[in-house]
């Protein structure tokens, strides 16, 4: 069968690549065309990468507004390319601002449409549920609580686990020893605290200074920023001036593996850190207006995927306009070795791992998709 996949950011490229690998196992005649990135191109083993996510990633209201003409042109290009390829199914992966508009169009064209990794309508923009129900044929979710949530709106879902577990398992095979990690990166022998400050310029500028300030309160630890490769390194260097905090590019899981704890912004990184069994606190600075409006805008009591899935505060969330450094230090010390909250958090993470499920999710999702398509042939 012919598959057309659309993603718009690095995480989508990762999950899309794993799904392609699974589809190739489940369908020996699978053919692919896609909007994505290098990982998907490698997995597909072909030249059918239509548009790289580096050309299509526009985040934030102002950024989107400034690029409306480009986004409109890309939308038209995507529709024309789908029509020319005539796929058996279009698989939309996250990226709802773009993908839900494509879903509306594919529905009108009578093209089978699957949505993999549902928009987080349970957190904000609940109106997207109506679009999913109206335009999407099958919805594949990666959090178990979403089954009941989408069910309230009459939407059937398929849950086969979380593809993040596949990535963690795959990278675990190539982990180096702590000694080699320290030597390779010219680090000293102090225990490590990882600083996972985000992947976008604005959130790094907002959160990293507070993380650096907190690091100065614990001189017996070395703090390492998990830098992303697509951002200019001068961004990190300017924010780390005057501190002994280091940054390592594209070594997030290696750094976390050898860390005693982590300070993480909200997002998928909170779940990744927990599934790796690394105690964490969530630290996220928000504008004063957001702090005031948060109870009225956010539909759920938590921001971290750890707490959302466990439905309780297993990790401390410090989400505010001005961080109380003394309180943040207290929370961090409580999850470091010997801390009062460390073992309870590790036990909570084991429960989370059972809820989310183990490796193999991408293959299970692929099998479910192929089975659905085969029944309808």
Characteristic terms for this protein:
377 residues, alpha/beta, seven-stranded parallel beta sheet, six-stranded parallel beta sheet, 18 helices, 49% helix
Per-chain topology:
Layout: E1 2-6, H1 10-26, E2 31-36, H2 38-44, E3 49-52, H3 61-66, H4 68-85, E4 89-93, H5 96-109, E5 113-116, H6 128-135, E6 138-141, H7 146-151, E7 157-159, H8 164-172, H9 178-184, E8 192-196, H10 201-215, E9 222-227, H11 233-240, E10 246-249, H12 252-257, E11 259-264, H13 268-275, E12 280-285, H14 288-297, H15 305-310, E13 317-320, H16 325-335, H17 342-356, H18 361-375
Parallel strand pairs: 1-2, 1-4, 2-3, 4-5, 5-6, 6-7, 8-9, 8-11, 9-10, 11-12, 12-13
3D structure, described in words:
This protein has 377 residues and is of the alpha/beta class. It contains 18 helices and 13 strands. A seven-stranded parallel β-sheet has the order 3-2-1-4-5-6-7, sandwiched between helices. Strand 11 (259-264), helix 13 (268-275) and strand 12 form a beta-alpha-beta unit. Helix 1 (10-26) crosses helix 18 (361-375) and helix 5 packs parallel to helix 6. It is globular and about 60 Å long. The chain starts with a strand and ends with a helix.
């Amino acid at each position: 069968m012919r598959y057309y996949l659309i993603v718009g950011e690095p995480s989508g490229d990762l999950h899309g690549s794993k799904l392609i690998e699974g589809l190739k196992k489940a369908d020996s005649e699978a053919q692919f065309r896609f909007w994505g990135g290098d990982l998907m191109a490698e997995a597909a083993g072909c030249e059918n990468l239509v548009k790289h996510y580096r050309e299509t990633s526009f985040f934030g209201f102002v950024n989107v507004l400034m690029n409306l003409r480009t986004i409109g042109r890309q939308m038209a290009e995507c529709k024309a390319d789908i029509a020319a390829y005539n796929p058996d199914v279009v698989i939309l992966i996250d990226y709802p601002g773009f993908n839900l508009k494509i879903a509306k169009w594919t529905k009108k064209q009578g093209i089978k449409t699957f949505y993999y990794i549902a928009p987080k309508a349970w957190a904000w923009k609940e109106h997207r549920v109506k679009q999913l129900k109206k335009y999407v044929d099958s919805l594949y979710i990666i959090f178990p609580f979403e089954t009941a949530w989408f069910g309230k709106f009459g939407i059937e879902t398929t849950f086969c686990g979380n593809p993040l577990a596949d990535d963690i398992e795959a990278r675990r095979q190539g982990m180096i020893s702590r000694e080699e990690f320290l030597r390779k990166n010219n680090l000293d022998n102090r225990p490590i605290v990882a600083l996972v400050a985000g992947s976008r310029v604005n959130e790094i500028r907002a959160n990293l200074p507070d993380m650096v300030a907190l690091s100065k309160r614990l001189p017996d630890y070395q703090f390492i920023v998990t830098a992303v490769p697509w951002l200019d390194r001068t961004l990190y260097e300017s924010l780390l001036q005057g501190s002994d905090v280091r940054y390592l590019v594209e070594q997030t899981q290696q750094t976390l593996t050898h860390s005693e704890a982590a300070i993480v912004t909200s997002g998928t990184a909170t779940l990744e850190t927990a599934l790796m069994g690394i105690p964490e606190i969530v630290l996220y600075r928000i504008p004063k207006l957001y702090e005031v409006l948060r109870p009225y805008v956010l539909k759920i009591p938590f921001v971290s995927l750890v707490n959302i899935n466990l439905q309780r505060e297993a990790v401390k969330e410090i989400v505010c306009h001005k961080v109380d450094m003394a309180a943040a230090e207290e929370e961090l010390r409580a999850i470091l070795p010997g801390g009062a909250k460390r073992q309870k958090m590790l036990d909570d993470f084991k429960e989370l791992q059972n809820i989310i499920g183990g490796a193999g999710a991408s293959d299970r999702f692929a099998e479910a998709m192929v089975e659905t398509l085969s029944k309808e042939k």
